[in-house]
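Q: A reviewer asked whether we had any structural model of the full assembly, not just the individual parts. We don't, so I'm hoping you can provide one. Inputs are below.
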Amino acid sequence: MNRTNLIEQINRKKSYLCVGLDSDINKIPEELQRFPDPVFEFNKRVIEATSDHCVAYKINTAFYESRGLAGWACLEKTVAAIPDTHFKIADAKRGDIGNTSRQYAKTFFGHMNFDAVTVSPYMGEDSVSPFLDFENKWVIILALTSNKGSDDFQQLSIQDKNERLFERVLKTCSRWGSEENIMFVVGATHPDAFLDIRKIIPRHFLLVPGVGAQGGDLGQLTKNAANDDTGILVNVSRGILFPQNNLDYPQNIREAAHAYHHQMSLLIQ
Amino acid sequence: MNRTNLIEQINRKKSYLCVGLDSDINKIPEELQRFPDPVFEFNKRVIEATSDHCVAYKINTAFYESRGLAGWACLEKTVAAIPDTHFKIADAKRGDIGNTSRQYAKTFFGHMNFDAVTVSPYMGEDSVSPFLDFENKWVIILALTSNKGSDDFQQLSIQDKNERLFERVLKTCSRWGSEENIMFVVGATHPDAFLDIRKIIPRHFLLVPGVGAQGGDLGQLTKNAANDDTGILVNVSRGILFPQNNLDYPQNIREAAHAYHHQMSLLIQ
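A: Here is a predicted structure for the entire assembly that you could use as a starting point for your response.
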């Protein structure tokens, strides 16, 4: 999916919600355990309950790899079950020397039909560029992540004391491609950082985790991070898959996605 | 495998060779293509031809994932086929928020029987610590990688201009565990850096890629990086799997591994 199509989907739905399919097999409803692939059955029902409310799905590969072959089969079936109207993100956090990154790009863009893969910037340009050789495919580069560990290195001041490592990552990596094929991960847990980030990359899309279970505030991050094209995809995983409302499954999932959608439609109207 | 056992293996064989099973299906011998899983047949023969000469195997997951389910099945069979006398490294370069890194740790240490996983430090402590909860298992943290892209961020000076990012990574990450469960990746393509690195972490094992196809010099890196416990595992992938000598397969592989072994035995005698 290219940038124009993505923006059209966002404008049409007035939603910039990304549903994270971190479908932990130990947490899904009991009634699905009778199926040969309970996680896939859960994912199908989540997609059905949420597709009107979101524009993207993010699949964290860790939750699938941890179940070995069965998990990998489930990952392949799940991405194939997502409608083409939705942007499909492999949250894989890969990145290796060029020769090897090319193999990862083949995995997610060739063997499977993802639109984007998350990549760590630590190994530099030749670890990212093989992903950019695929037309209408994207890399989403970790800049400032949502976790506590983001303090350890990402926020270190470099050379000129006014620049932090994640800011250098934004400046350098944005030159490797364009806003047509590069996005950045910025966690909702750093709301003030969005103002600095938008000075560096006003037009790029940001993938924003950290709303919900991790405590980020949707209103504040939207105010600080949204641009004229909306320019953000806000991911919610546990807050939609395993919501804290009083409805029965799967109505609870539909309602949780609807609540985020409704809030977003008011924030970008 | 714990540190004592690893050092015993090195001393017994006078080898610190790690064979990288980057078994590209497009490059393996024609005669194996008739098998249902040609890459696994190739790997079995490589292990048989090299196990006397090496102390470790490193499997780069990218080469397996790119073939989907069949590749993942091959990965599981390959790690199970490596003798317990050898240290088994999943070169997966993973790392995510704590909740997710725990899933990756389960994949490689629970579902499969790897001794170590390579991890990117960019996301900080909580992305690494879940791997350290497993007894006698290791993380191998990217510090200064072998590729050209290592210039982009790893070598940036931070705060105090005498410290580069990778040096801060060594200092900070070494506090998260001990030399019993943490190693670092340092590429052979930066031979002078080993002297600085050994001032920061004199005792930790280093996993050293970049010899062979990438041009690093074994003698020079051993001189600069080896410590009293040897303390290095030097990985060779393409240089052993697809060697440039004149022998027929699989003698060419055995001879390539033997040549590295012989050179190593002289360097650490």
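A: Points you may want to mention in the reply: The longest strand of chain B covers residues 87-94. Chain B has eleven helices and ten strands.
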